[in-house]
């Protein structure tokens, strides 16, 4: 069933969009990521202009993340205090990111910037996560307990403005969480992602949070940052396609509930290996597209024919 998207100005199969939304919703519930790192490139692949894909995907992430958070709140695996601190940085970063996005859009360079950002970030984060996850998986199979050196993460604990995070069992400075939130907010605005693929590893390895509360806390922060980003894009760029957003949203909400159930039954090490592999696959496809397309300028004329 073909449906016309008024802002994107293309016709797309409605069931394809529902399916994509559902698949990304499952990922959201399983891994605590908004799923934008996968959905936004997929939208590029089916012919949605990058500027519209970025702004609209931020909207869909709000819904799938909200659906996932509800499930985690029922299990009491959300650190609301940590989520609020991350949020302070996230909202600031989102505002800065939209300013940069608008400037590059006025120069006509936004499509290339978005794709390059994806290739660089996904490549670096995916590789680091994959190596770390395989190491953790190997240790768990050999029966070696993972070293619990979280308490002595030097510089994080020596910084001022400390706060106690009871749900995570931490007493650390609020500066690192605010900086993590700031980076994720900028990425959310420029790349149309929730930023979970960076936030989840940062919360585990940098802040030392227990894996069981990381997913729910990440989703809690993502809801507000991506909601704010969507609002800014809608009011300054007019690139939010409501029809596209609704179709992705319906699939995403259903998928997130399924993903949360699957995630609760799988070991954390296996989840991280799967997420890292997915990140690397998407990165590879985007990098290939950049190399195969002869020129951004000339590819615009044939975008509808892909």
UniProtKB/TrEMBL annotation:
Cellular component annotations (GO), alphabetically ordered: plasma membrane
Principal cellular location given in the protein's record: membrane
Cell membrane in keyword set: yes
Keyword Transmembrane: yes
InterPro entries: TM_pro_TauE-like, TSUP/Inactive_protease-like
Keyword terms: Cell membrane, Membrane, Transmembrane, Transmembrane helix
Source domain of life: Bacteria
Transmembrane segments: 12-39, 85-104, 110-131, 169-193, 213-235, 242-264
Compartment(s) where it occurs, according to its Swiss-Prot or TrEMBL record: Cell membrane; Membrane
Membrane topology: Multi-pass membrane protein
Family label: Belongs to the 4-toluene sulfonate uptake permease (TSUP) (TC 2.A.102) family.
Record's protein name: Probable membrane transporter protein
């Amino acid at each position: 069933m073909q449906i016309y998207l008024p802002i994107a100005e293309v016709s797309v199969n409605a069931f394809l969009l529902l399916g994509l939304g559902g698949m990304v919703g499952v990922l959201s519930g399983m891994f605590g990521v908004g799923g934008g790192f996968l959905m936004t490139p997929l939208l590029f692949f089916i012919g949605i202009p990058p500027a519209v894909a970025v702004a609209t995907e931020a909207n869909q992430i709000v819904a799938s993340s909200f659906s996932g958070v509800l499930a985690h709140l029922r299990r009491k695996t959300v650190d609301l205090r940590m989520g609020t601190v991350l949020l302070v940085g996230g909202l600031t970063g989102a505002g800065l990111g939209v300013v940069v996005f608008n400037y590059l859009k006025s120069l006509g360079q936004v499509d290339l910037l978005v794709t390059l950002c994806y290739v660089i970030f996904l490549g670096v984060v995916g590789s680091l996560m994959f190596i770390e996850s395989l190491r953790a998986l190997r240790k768990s199979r050999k029966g070696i307990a993972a070293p619990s050196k979280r308490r002595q993460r030097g510089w994080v604990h020596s910084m001022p403005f400390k706060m106690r995070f009871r749900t995570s069992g931490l007493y650390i400075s609020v500066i690192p969480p605010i900086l993590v939130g700031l980076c994720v907010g900028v990425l959310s605005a420029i790349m149309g992602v929730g930023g979970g693929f960076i936030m989840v590893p940062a919360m585990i390895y940098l802040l030392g949070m227990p894996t069981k509360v990381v997913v729910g806390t990440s989703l809690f922060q993502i809801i507000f940052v991506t909601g704010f980003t969507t609002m800014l894009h809608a009011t300054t760029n007019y690139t939010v396609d409501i029809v596209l957003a609704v179709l992705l949203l319906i699939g995403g909400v259903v998928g997130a509930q399924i993903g949360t159930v699957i995630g609760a039954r799988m070991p954390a090490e296996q989840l991280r290996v799967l997420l890292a592999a997915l990140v690397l696959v998407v990165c590879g496809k985007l990098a290939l597209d950049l190399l195969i397309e002869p020129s951004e300028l000339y590819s615009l004329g044939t975008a509808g024919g892909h």
